[in-house]
Write a structure and sequence with these properties.
The protein is an alpha+beta fold. It has 2 domains: 8-126 and 277-286, Roll (Diaminopimelate Epimerase, Chain A, domain 1); 148-270, Roll (Diaminopimelate Epimerase, Chain A, domain 1), CATH 3.10.310.10. 16% of the residues lie in helices and 39% in strands. Helix 1 (33-40) links the parallel strand 2 (18-23) and strand 3. The longest helix is centred in the first third of the chain and has 15 residues, at 79-93. The mean pLDDT is 96. Bound molecules: the ligand N[C@@H](CCC[C@H](N)C(=O)O)C(=O)O. InterPro entries: DAP_epimerase_AS (IPR018510), DAP_epimerase_DapF (IPR001653). Pathway: Amino-acid biosynthesis; L-lysine biosynthesis via DAP pathway; DL-2,6-diaminopimelate from LL-2,6-diaminopimelate: step 1/1.
Length: 288
């Protein structure tokens, strides 16, 4: 661990409005990186972002990525951040190859840089979903957690019933189908579900409405962040849950508040591929 940076160069990027402060060319994480993430992601007193992302050296892949949520917690995975740092690496560090490998806490991922600068898309193989209850993790000892009932609310207050399907894409997700996701009070029920004791490491909560067998709408309450405009792993989890519940095909377009992602759960190897935009916003210097 290195000492805290006084001045730190960063690049602001986003994947469909899921925004990150990307820090590259450091050799190691600074001390107290969680406190830094919490301060720097603050939208009033910091730069403002959903997460702080470090692009670091790796001896197993082209580079490694560590991400910290806005509350300072470190998730295992982040689909939109992987796509952002892959684009960063390709355009700012080495454009030698369009197929890259990225080491994350959830394993090594393969990423493809597709299209021209104007219309650049980034595809990532997010690996196979984890469906076993205890592995997601949930407190349910079952091979799959499909349409499992939970009640949320506090004693004396309004109680609400939900049916969720559990999926891990390296990080834990609970997917809930609702009638009209656009009108759904995500900020009311999201935090109660995120912190429900059925999820020992909390969970990201996706609320979805199915448009057709190949299109769905999704809003997300992210663990450690709150409602965000998009979530890559959440979109993958939503497709997996919808397919195993017989509600969609294996390939869908996911409409998020910040844009669209194409999610494809390949029959050949059981891996979930995600394709979408990753966008540069600006470069800056954090004065700590
Ligand atoms: N926005 C992300 C997921 C970020 C991590 C998440 N908040 C967690 O704690 O698991 C994505 O694009 O996947």
């Amino acid at each position: 661990m290195a000492g805290p940076p006084m001045m730190m160069k960063f690049t602001k990027m986003h994947g469909l409005g899921n925004d990150f402060i990307v820090v590259a060319k450091e050799q190691a994480l600074p001390d107290q990186v969680s406190i830094l993430a919490n301060r720097i992601c603050d939208r009033n007193f910091g730069i403002g972002a959903d997460g702080l992302v470090y692009l670091l050296p790796s001896d197993q892949a082209d580079f490694s990525m560590r991400i910290f949520n806005a509350d300072g917690s470190e998730p295992e995975q982040c689909g939109n951040a992987v796509r952002c740092v892959a684009r960063y690496y390709f355009e700012r560090i080495s454009s030698e190859k369009r197929e890259l490998t990225v080491e994350t806490k959830a394993g090594i991922q393969r990423v493809w840089i597709e299209g021209d600068t104007e219309d650049r898309q980034v595809r990532v193989n997010m690996g196979p979903p984890i469906l076993a209850g205890l592995a997601i993790p949930t407190r349910i000892d079952a091979e799959r957690v499909v349409d499992h009932s939970v009640w949320v609310g506090t004693e004396g207050e309004e109680q609400q019933h939900f049916s969720f399907t559990g999926v891990s894409m390296g990080n834990p997700h609970a997917v809930i189908e609702v009638k009209n996701v656009e009108q759904f009070p995500v900020a009311k029920w999201g935090p109660l579900l995120e912190n429900h004791p059925i999820f020992p490491r909390k969970a990201n909560i996706e609320f979805i409405s199915i448009r057709s067998e190949d299109e769905l709408e999704m809003r997300v309450w992210e663990r450690g962040v709150g409602e965000t405009l998009a979530c890559g792993t959440g979109a993958c989890a939503s497709l997996v849950a919808s397919y195993i519940r017989g509600r969609t095909d294996r390939r869908v377009k996911v409409h998020l508040r910040g844009g669209e992602l194409i999610i494809d759960w390949k029959e050949t190897d059981g891996c979930v591929h995600m394709t979408g935009a990753a966008t540069f916003v600006f470069d800056g210097v954090w004065l700590g």
